[in-house]
Structure formats: structure tokens, C-alpha cells
């Protein structure tokens, strides 16, 4: 096993970069082009708030699907586990993140889990607030506290693009309305969902979210508990089984870390009691995961003994 | 958190027993009747070989699907990870364990993972040996070493019943033959699979399998490494995402322990670096998991701080 | 075989009425209640314009899915067969009329045929006109010519109800937008589709549509050809394979008549070169077909030798 | 419209032959190679037993799926419509002929119709007889009477090849056993099914089957009624909705003739009260239909006014 240093991180970045070539940058995101393809950045923050970063860690990308775990935390906070999982399941699904067939195939038309689009829309519909604006404000404030980054902002351009390209999500949402799964206003739920996806974050922001989960819900500096640890246990478990789209099983085996990825090439990793990881690598594979970023996560797990199913770390300690 | 004692285990059994009433005993297993419905037993063995047991821990049931993890270990040992996962995937699947549609729906007709029947048959087809008898002998010997239980035996009756009721598994296997996924003799692969399911085990045996996984592959007394730890990491990760049929997500959230269940009501739990758990509770729910046994696993996780996504244990240590 | 007389029709109505008890009235249609359950009316018009009617033939119901064949005729007229069947398939589908899975399951996300909702929406999107109002006006004028019923009107109430309950159709339409199948404005296509469904017709109107198809496209009195016969051949073939929802195969066997049904309990029958049939019986089965109306259609086919796959009529003539 | 003469048929063959190039010969059939690709033959027999033939009409190919309509006739004869359609549905299915998903997707695991493999196996299982040999003997004798071809024979080579490549059909059959749809011996049902597919026929034989259906069940020379006309009406209706694999809708529109095709490139056409058509053209498309043969059928329908949904013929007569 290797030691976590910035020197090591730089080497890990260099080793992982070549995997970018097998991916493609998601061109639906505004201001995105092929020049982003070779970017790769990482930030790791340990339990004692030590921060390590390397590569293009200063870059900003929209949250995209990484917003799904923030939405889930807020909904759990607002309504508790029972109510949230009346609206959405917690089972992994062997299909693409925007599949609609599953909504039709099963007796219950409840989305399989909160990490697929239908599930995340159903969760967004739960977040409390008197208007879409208020609800999004709560979301953004929560995120600012978690990351202790007061300047977090939503890209209007990304939000508009999400809305303009939102036909599939709209189809999922109206389907859920037709089956009674979604009972609130469909366009409002979608609007909130699109905004959530459009918040811009850098590697440290992503790592802070990971750390928040890893530490059981305490604010970075004040140590205030913002959310009870048992809710975060739920979120991490769902990240492990469903966080990496339909490569989640692959990542459970190869990295063994609760992760959540987004089609902007971002990955949040949360190793309970150890560290938070934030990765950005815009070239994604056909399932939606950053190719270089995914390679980096697997390398970090291997080199630093982060795999939760391994015993290297435990053996070392004995 | 509570302390692990036999007194505690007895209380946990009493608390979990009432859940048996919501399940049903699988009547396809010979010598099985309603009188087994209220049985519930547990054995826990810790890293330092301390053994705790309570309830009907002396009962024997056939392995059924718990055999899938043994088959997977042997195949990984025989062929390595790359070859095994050419034959079978590692993604969780949101469908019943005997689903055939998934084999048809995807470009690759590779079964989703080794925990569903199709996948386990594909894995069984890999296990080396010159005849079905020899291959099964290797399986049984491996199991005897893991459990250090020399008297382990296969029930002819259960084997015959498996074979007689094997139409669905036969359908899965011939489907895989038709797509070129299964290239060896179909009836031989099925025969071995049926035998593997028919090995009779008690709670200690199941717990020993869990401990073997938790300890990274050493034989109980000799401390000989029978299989490299990285293969067991793979097995535990797959148990977490897919081990409890299509309630695996639920168990990842509610227990957070790599588990594998069988329709005989057995459950194997493997907490890396901590302990192995064996449970028997024959009343199963419609997904195939022991109702009382599942309740017990969740209670143990909660009371003893076993949830891998929690930080209670870590916090305690700090 | 029996002779077609009003006396015979009255008896046929009486024989078929009891089947109403096994169906249910579609309560989503405004001004619809259980009192409509026992209604049953029929009008038959032969090639030489003889008109026979019996039962509640004066009742009016909304067209609902019977509008699908009118939309298809107009689109064929506007764009020709090649263009129309670029937008929609012509294969029967073994699934419910509002299924969305099929759109996702196949390489092409083209709806299976124009008789299912997704297909009919795709067809409605083709109908020419500068605005939804103009396009609907063309639809209504075409229908007035076919039926020579100048007073045909659209029920605002039914239209509003269609729109209010339109979540599933909206989901289908946005799905088609997401795959590029639907390239025009989604809400406009839906609006036109909802209006088309809301035109109120009685048994004679429905029979006139059938006759128009049976006679190869001539206006009732002027004998003007409104549409070339080969387009109507296409429509009748699709009615035979897909016109009665996912009971179309059953009706092909038991009646052998090109038919189209609607969830208002209406059925249009078109026997090439022989007659048009219009039936209203609001109690429908779970597939969407009038139970008493369907029984009547089968009885008429049997008694009058209308089954196109039979040779009674041919033998008689020899 | 054109007149039916051998001269016309020769021209029609020449016009259709080029379509062979877009198809491929099914190499699973023994003694089949690329040299067969350009073969195209046709025989038409009218109600008054006039026989017209052209092209390679003397060639012999195995029945393959055209056997499905013979099996259905025998089963209807043996058990009547009610019993047969307890075992198999009569609805067209929008999927490939060997799909297994549909058996799993629906509440009833009854195959959709007798024209898909699962349905035909379920029908074959019904055919009476004390052994597979006796049951096949009945089948062959029935076929000899229909075609008045005493020398009809089964190719052992084709039968053996069917059996050797029968994994998918075996999978379908065991699936049906697992759901209780198939209650007789699976291997026997398959054995009979494979034999039925292996009977060798030429264009005249195929045309005779078509004529038998078109004439309502009379033996060619004796005029003995072998099967009641209402059973043949059922068979022709199912041919129209499901006889051309999942291009049946296309052929209903483009030809409007009850047809059944086989992957040997054979097509049987049956126009009620008019004629039987037999076509052989071994190059098939990816759905299983002869490309040149299908083009020929559509041309014949167009030129000779055979489309049942058209009124050319009727108009001409008036």
C-alpha cells in the first residue's frame, strides 16, 4: 500500500489520464468541447480535514447526477426514511439510468432507486419549500454548508440546456404522474431537478460532499451535525449498489467505495470514517461514468487500501 | 451498541422469531413442512475464532443459493477473475433470481451476475474436473476445508428433487447454450448445480463460510491461505450488491453486510475483518429471503454496529 | 346464414346485450355513468346505401380511439404511405395500447403501429395545417364529408377531460421527442390528438366511416373519391391486425372483419365491398373493447357470413 | 390487373429475383449453400384445380415454420378450438419468433400464438398419438392427403440438424414446463416439432396446402371434407395477423393475403375461395421471410387483385 501524499496523487493522475481517450465529452453541457477531454483532477480530504489535491482540481463542472445524493439527503431530512421510500425504491436496477420500461414492468411503478433519473425526480418532488425558487434555495444553502463554499452558484446556461433537452426526463415524470407515483406538479419537480443538476462545483466541493458523508453529517468547521448519521448510512449504501449507473456492480468489485458519478465526468467518493474524494474527468463512457476518473478511483482504492470489502487495512492494523 | 454474548443472541432470536409468520416454508425441499416455519437459529464466529450460537442452530438445511458463493470462489480460483467475468457479469439486476428476459433483452446474453440462477449455472459450468462427480467432489472438499467440517454431505433426496423441479433452470441453461454463453454440456452443468444446492449445512457451517470470507481466505485451524484475499473481496462486493435476491438494496441499507441467502431460509453474512454469521430460518418471503432470519441480520447489524456504511464503530474507536 | 333486416338486427341486439354485464363504463369520459352500461345500438349501411339500425343507435359517444383511423387516412392523404410509415410502423404489438416499454425496447423507437396511442400521436403530428385549430378543422371537415353529417361537433368537456387526464399520452409523446421520433411541437400534437378523440358520433356516423372504407373512399352522395382506394386498403389491413387493441387476433379469428374500437364503447366495422357497421355499447372489457358490442360484431359476422376468412359467402355464390 | 398465365408468372419471377440479393440463405439447414440463393419458384392452383407454375418450382425445401399451420389444423381437429386456445393464444406479438421474454412478461405464460416457436411447440404437444412416431405418422398422412402427394418424406438430416441446433426451442419448451403451460413430456414434444419441420416439400406441395385452406378443407381429388371450414377460417385469420413472423403487419398491408413463411424460404398463401400459392426462395431477411419470395407474393397480390382488403376485384365484378 502507498501513502497518501500530493506527490502520489500527481503520479496517480498521470497513470489514469490515458483512459480519457476511450471516453467522450458530453456535448449537451454548454461550454463543453473536446478540449476538456483530457482534464483530470482530484481532491481528497481526510477525517482530520487534511486536503490533498492534484491535476485539474480547480476546474468547475455542473453536478449533474451527483446532485441526486444531495436531493436524497434533503428529502430524508424533510420526511424521514419511511416516507421517502414510499416514493422511490432502494433496489439496484440492471438498466440505463433513464430507462422507462422498468416503470411499466413492475406491479408498483415506483422507480427502482433514487440514483436513476425517475427516482431522483420523485425525490426532488418531495423537497420542501413554497416555490421552486425557495426549494432550490434550500438545496443550494444545504450544499453551501456541506462544502463550506459560500460562492456555489447555478449556471443559468446549464439549467436552460437541461430544460431544453429534458424530453426524456419529462416523459419519465409524466409517466409517474399517470401512475400516481408523482402527485405534485410535474413541471415544478422537473424545474427543481434541472436546477439541482446545474450547480457548478470543483474537485474540493465534490470531496467535501464525500467527506460530509464519510464523517456522518457534521459541518466542516463548526462540527454541527446537519443530518443524523443513519440517513447518511442509507445514502452511502445506495451509492454502493447504484451510484455508478449500471456499472455500479463493477465499481463495488473494483473500487469497493460508495461513489456517485455524473455525466459531467464528476465522481464523489465517501469512505466511511476515512475520507471524501472528489474527481473531475469530463470524458465519459457509454454508461455515463468518467473513464479516467473511474480508473483513478480504482487505482486510489487499490493503492491506499480503501476497498471496504478488503481486509488489507484491517490486517495492517492488527 | 450491545455486546456480543450468547445471552444477547438468545434475546435477538426471540425478538426476530415473530417475523417468521409473514413467510412461507419452501415446500419443494424434501422433508420440509410447516413445522419448520418457526425455527430460527444463529451462529456467529469472530476473527479470533470465538463461537456464539443461539436458537435452533443445530438444524441442517440444504445450501440452495448460498452455494452460489462457493461456486464463485472455486471458479475464481480455477480461472481467475478475467475469465470468470467473461462468462458472467457483476452488475446487480432488478429482477427475480430466475428471470430469463434479461438474457434476451441485452446485447450480450451474459447473465447479470453470479448470484442469479443463470449466472450461477454459467459459473458451475466453469468448475474444473473430469466428470460431474469429480467436479462435485472438489466442491465438497473445498467446502469441508472452509468449514473444517469433515462430515458435510449431499442429500440425495434434495438433489433428486432439484433435478425433478429443474425445468426453469434447464430453460435458463439451454437459453445460454443457444446464445453461445454456455459452451459446455448443459445437462452436466445443471447436474453439478443441483448437487451443489443439495449439500446440507447447519448454522456453524454457514458462519464458517462467512468467517472464511471475512478473514480473507485462511483455513480455520491451519491458517493456510486457500484462496487469495482479492478474490474474496470480489465475492463480498457481489454479495453486497446482489446477494439477497432482489432485496439486496434493501439489505445493503438496513444491514450493510455482505450476505447471501438461499430459499432454504439460510443466510451467510461476512463482515470483513470482524466476523462470520450463519442463520437458518426456513420461512421465506416472496423474494426468497428468510423473513425471521432477515430481521435477525438487521437487528444484529444495528445492535452490534456491523453496518459497513455506518461510522459508529469507527467513532467508538476514536 | 340469416338475412339482414331490422327485425334480425333487433334480435341480435337482444342476444348481445347480456354481455354488457361483464364490462365497465369508462368513467373518465364526462357525463358518463353506470346508467349507460346497458346501452347497445347498431347501424349497418350496405354498398347501395341501404341503412339498417336497431337498439340505442341514436346515442352519441366520443370517438376516442376510433379517431385513429381518420387521422391515419388524413396523414396518408397529406404525405403518402412512405412518409407516414417512416414515422410509425405497421406491425401488430402484443401489448396494451398505452405501453411505453416497446418504444424503449427496440432499436428503432418508432411506435409499432398507428392504432396504439404512441402511433396515433405520431400520426396526428403529421396532419397538415397552420395551427392546431386549422388542423383540427381539416380533420372535422374530412369527417363531415365521409359521414355526410354536417353537424358533427367536438365536446369541449370531453376534450378538457382528455387533456386533464393526459399524463400517459404526454409521457409517450415526450418519449418520442427524446428519441427524435416526434420532431414537431409535442403539446400541439397532443392537443390535436385530444380534440380528435372528443368528436361526438352516433351509430350511423360510425357506420358511415366503415362504409367509406368498404367502398374505397367515395363520398356518400356525390360519389366523389376523397381518397385513393389503396390508402384505404392499408387502413383496413391495419384495422384487421391491430384495430381491436390487444384482442385484435381474437377478433380476426372470431369476426374476421376489419374493425376499430374506442374506449367509449364504439366500434367501426368495414367489410370491403359489402358494408359499413357502427356499434355503440359503453361497457368495455379490460382491454378497451365494448363487451356487448364485440359480441354483436361476432354474431353479425357469423349470421351474415361476413368473416373474410370464411368461404360461406363464396360457396353460396358458386 | 393482369391475367394469371404461366407467361405472366415467368415475368413475375424475373421481376422478383433481384430481391434475393438482399437476403441470406439459412445455413443451419443441411445441404444448403450459397448456390441456392438465387432460386425462386412458384406454383398457383386455382379453385378449379388449374395449376400454374414457373421458375424453380421443382425444388424441395424443408417445411420449417410452414409446418406450424399443419400442426394447428391437426390439433384443432383433435381437440377443438376451445382446448387448443387454452394452450396457446391467438394474438399477434410484436417480437421475434423465438422470443422467450413474452412468456415471462405476462400473467399468463401462454405463448402469444401458434405461429411463434413456443406456441407451435405447445400445439405439437397436443397432437394425438401413442408415441412420437405414431404422432408424426398422423401428421405426415394428413399432409399427404392435403397435398395428394403420397411420396412426401422427412429428411433425417434436417431432423438431426434441428435437434442438434435446438437449444433455443428446448429453452422455450422447458420454460413452458416450468410454468405449467406444457404438461406433456418436453423432449417428446420437441422431437415431434423437429420432425414436422423436416418434411421436404416443393412449390406444388406448398400451393396444395394453400388451396386446401382456400377451399375450406376438401381433399384435392376426392372432394372429401377432411376438416370443417370453421377451423380453416381460424387458421387463415391467424396467418393474416401472425403468419409472416414480425413482418406480418407489413404483409397484411402490402399483400393482404393469409400467408405462412418458413426460414427455408418457403411461403404458403391461401386466398379464401380463390387460390393456393406455393413459393420457394431460400434467401431470407433478418425476420425470417424469403426476400424474393415476399416480393413475388406482393407483386402477385397487386397484379392479380388478390388483396383481401382491396375492392378491385369486387368493383370489377359489379
Automatic annotation (TrEMBL), chains A, B, C, D:
<dbReference type="GO" id="GO:0006543">
    <property type="term" value="P:L-glutamine catabolic process"/>
</dbReference>
<dbReference type="Pfam" id="PF04960">
    <property type="entry name" value="Glutaminase"/>
</dbReference>
<comment type="similarity">
    <text>Belongs to the glutaminase family.</text>
</comment>
<dbReference type="GO" id="GO:0006537">
    <property type="term" value="P:glutamate biosynthetic process"/>
</dbReference>
<feature type="binding site">
    <location>
        <position position="169"/>
    </location>
    <ligand>
        <name>substrate</name>
    </ligand>
</feature>
<feature type="binding site">
    <location>
        <position position="65"/>
    </location>
    <ligand>
        <name>substrate</name>
    </ligand>
</feature>
<dbReference type="InterPro" id="IPR015868">
    <property type="entry name" value="Glutaminase"/>
</dbReference>
<comment type="subunit">
    <text>Homotetramer.</text>
</comment>
<keyword id="KW-0378">Hydrolase</keyword>
<feature type="binding site">
    <location>
        <position position="162"/>
    </location>
    <ligand>
        <name>substrate</name>
    </ligand>
</feature>
<feature type="binding site">
    <location>
        <position position="263"/>
    </location>
    <ligand>
        <name>substrate</name>
    </ligand>
</feature>
<protein>
    <recommendedName>
        <fullName>Glutaminase</fullName>
        <ecNumber>3.5.1.2</ecNumber>
    </recommendedName>
</protein>
<feature type="binding site">
    <location>
        <position position="193"/>
    </location>
    <ligand>
        <name>substrate</name>
    </ligand>
</feature>
<dbReference type="InterPro" id="IPR012338">
    <property type="entry name" value="Beta-lactam/transpept-like"/>
</dbReference>
<dbReference type="GO" id="GO:0004359">
    <property type="term" value="F:glutaminase activity"/>
</dbReference>
<feature type="binding site">
    <location>
        <position position="245"/>
    </location>
    <ligand>
        <name>substrate</name>
    </ligand>
</feature>
<feature type="binding site">
    <location>
        <position position="117"/>
    </location>
    <ligand>
        <name>substrate</name>
    </ligand>
</feature>
<keyword id="KW-0007">Acetylation</keyword>
Amino acid at each position: 500500500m502507498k501513502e497518501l501524499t500530493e506527490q502520489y496523487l500527481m503520479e496517480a493522475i498521470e497513470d489514469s489520464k490515458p483512459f480519457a481517450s476511450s471516453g467522450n465529452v458530453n456535448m449537451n453541457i454548454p461550454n463543453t468541447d473536446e478540449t476538456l477531454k483530457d482534464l483530470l483532477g482530484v481532491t481528497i480530504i481526510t477525517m482530520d480535514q487534511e486536503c490533498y489535491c492534484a491535476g485539474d482540481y480547480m476546474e468547475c463542472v455542473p453536478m449533474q447526477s451527483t446532485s441526486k445524493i444531495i436531493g436524497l439527503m434533503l428529502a430524508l431530512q424533510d420526511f424521514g426514511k419511511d416516507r421517502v421510500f414510499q416514493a422511490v425504491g432502494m433496489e439496484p436496477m440492471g438498466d440505463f439510468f433513464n430507462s422507462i420500461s422498468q416503470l411499466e414492468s413492475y406491479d408498483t411503478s415506483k422507480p427502482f432507486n433514487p440514483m436513476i433519473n425517475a427516482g431522483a425526480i420523485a425525490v426532488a418532488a418531495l423537497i420542501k419549500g413554497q416555490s421552486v425558487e425557495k426549494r432550490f434555495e434550500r438545496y443550494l444553502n444545504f450544499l453551501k454548508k456541506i462544502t463550506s463554499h459560500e460562492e456555489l452558484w447555478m449556471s443559468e446556461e446549464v439549467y436552460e440546456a437541461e430544460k431544453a433537452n429534458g424530453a426524456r426526463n419529462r416523459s419519465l415524470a409524466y409517466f409517474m404522474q399517470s401512475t400516481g407515483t408523482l402527485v405534485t406538479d410535474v413541471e415544478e419537480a422537473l424545474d427543481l431537478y434541472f436546477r439541482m443538476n446545474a450547480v457548478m462545483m470543483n474537485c474540493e466541493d465534490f470531496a467535501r460532499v464525500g467527506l460530509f458523508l464519510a464523517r456522518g453529517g457534521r459541518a466542516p468547521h463548526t462540527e454541527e451535525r446537519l443530518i443524523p448519521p443513519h440517513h447518511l448510512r442509507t445514502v452511502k449504501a445506495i451509492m454502493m449498489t447504484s451510484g455508478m449507473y449500471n456499472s455500479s456492480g463493477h465499481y463495488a468489485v473494483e473500487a469497493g467505495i460508495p461513489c456517485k458519478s455524473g455525466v459531467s465526468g464528476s465522481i464523489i467518493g465517501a469512505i466511511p470514517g476515512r475520507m471524501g474524494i472528489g474527481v473531475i474527468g469530463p470524458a465519459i463512457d457509454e454508461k455515463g461514468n468518467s473513464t479516467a476518473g473511474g480508473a483513478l478511483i480504482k487505482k486510489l482504492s487499490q493503492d491506499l487500501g480503501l476497498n471496504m470489502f478488503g481486509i488489507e487495512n484491517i490486517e495492517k492494523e492488527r
